[in-house]
Write a structure and sequence with these properties.
- The chain folds into 3 domains: 104 residues, Homeodomain-like (Arc Repressor Mutant, subunit A, Orthogonal Bundle); 109 residues, Nitrogenase molybdenum iron protein domain (Rossmann fold), CATH 3.40.50.1980; 124 residues, Rossmann fold (3-Layer(aba) Sandwich), CATH 3.40.50.
- The strands form 3 sheets. Strands 6, 7, 8, 9, 10 and 11 form a 6-stranded mixed sheet that branches. The protein has a 3-stranded parallel sheet with strand order 1-4-5, with helices on one face. Strands 2-3 form a two-stranded parallel ribbon.
- By secondary structure, it is an alpha/beta fold.
- It contains 20 helices and 11 strands.
- It is 53% helix and 13% strand.
- The longest helix has 22 residues.
Length: 370
């Protein structure tokens, strides 16, 4: 019992570090948060996460610094302060010790202009520690990346009418060194951009962590991607342990409500997170990915322990959702009886990328872990 409590404390301290690494953090302060002595806390943290607490602080600071060093004309003093160091010379020594080269030299090696064609490609670059030069930023359609990078991305490209791809005409005049694009572009778009830029065709239908590793190799960002994947897997194991679905996996259903229609829904990201990584079982018998319309009666006959609901943001869809909640069969679902129903949103649940996968995992943790 003591071991479980200690592990939870370590998890909470680790999350505190992730949220506050740019501030002044001491070993004594972190140990105090855990209720342990400094030496015991440091030993326990290293045993659990392979590195000491202060090594983890340094890792996060250097990762952030490497992103800032990609920007043009940013003073080293500003970067040092932005990641938690009051002395730029001390920051430079730490950076060189970790990376093997000085911040100035690292910055000079990063001056390539990378563009992306779709919003989810930003989720791969972010995990590799890269800020794109040109990307489809929109407060409505890519809100996470808009809030993250609105000031950092030099060229914000308009999304096309279907909201999936950026406008190619806006890319053609830009000095892009490499364009990152999914493989399923239309032949017309392919023809228009292939004559202008070197292109990295990313297969976003395969496991996104595999695709991230392959992209990182192309961009010489293997270490950044490796660290990101290691952090994701550590967080995943923590959430899996706390959910405790291993012995009795819950039956999980995701529904999508659009106007007067209800769909049993499973996209690549949902399949990866809920059914592969977290080990839930699908309430819907159709294998693989699906977006299949179902009736009120069919929904009421399914075994559902946990229900995730995506409601399109229009009045008709909301009315359908309210009507569904009054249906007798729906109210008899185990998920409804046990209040295991969760409303989720298209951002991030319609995106498939390493960053979206991590964000979905965090949403599950917030919704389901006391």
């Amino acid at each position: 019992m003591q071991k479980q409590s200690q592990k939870t404390d370590l998890t909470e301290v680790r999350r505190y570090i992730e949220e506050n690494f740019t501030k002044h953090l001491s070993l004594a302060h972190l140990a105090n948060l855990s209720g342990l002595s400094s030496s015991y806390f440091s030993s326990a943290f290293k045993q659990e996460y392979i590195q000491s607490p202060m090594e983890y602080v340094t890792q996060l600071r250097i990762q952030k610094a490497k992103q800032l060093l990609q920007k043009q004309d940013v003073r080293l003093k500003f970067i040092a302060e932005a990641v938690g160091y009051s002395d730029e010379f001390y920051f430079s020594r730490v950076f060189k010790k970790v990376e093997g080269i000085s911040p100035t030299m690292y910055s000079s090696q990063q001056k390539s202009n990378i563009g992306v064609v779709t919003g989810n490609m930003m989720g791969y670059l972010h995990a590799a520690g890269i800020i794109p030069f040109a990307a489809p930023l929109s407060a409505k359609w890519t809100p996470y990346y808009y809030n993250l990078w609105a000031q950092e991305i030099e060229h914000k490209v308009t999304l096309t009418q279907n909201k999936n791809y950026c406008s190619p005409n806006e890319l053609l005049h830009l000095p892009i060194d490499l364009l990152i694009s999914p493989k399923d572009l239309s032949s017309e778009l392919v023809k228009r951009i292939e004559d202008h830029f070197p292109i990295y065709w990313l297969d976003d239908k395969q496991d996104c962590l595999v695709a991230l590793t392959e992209l990182a190799a192309r961009l010489n960002k293997q270490e950044e991607a490796k660290q990101w994947i290691t952090q994701y897997r550590a967080r995943l194991e923590d959430v899996r342990r706390r959910l405790d679905w291993t012995s009795t996996p819950p039956k999980v259903l995701v529904i999508r409500i659009y106007q007067q229609q209800i769909f049993a829904y499973c996209n690549t990201g949902i399949q990866h997170l809920l059914f592969q990584d977290l080990g839930a079982e699908s309430s819907y018998e159709q294998p693989g990915l699906y977006n299949t319309e179902i009736t009120f009666d069919e929904l009421g006959k399914l075994k559902v322990d946990k229900l995730f609901t995506i409601i399109c943001p229009d009045d008709e869809s909301r009315a359908t959702w309210h009507h569904l909640q009054r249906e007798v069969g729906f109210r008899q679902l185990e998920a409804i009886k046990q209040q295991q129903i969760y409303v989720i949103h298209s951002d991030p649940w319609f995106e498939y990328s390493p960053v979206a996968l991590k964000r979905m995992l965090e949403e599950v943790a917030v919704m389901m872990i006391p």
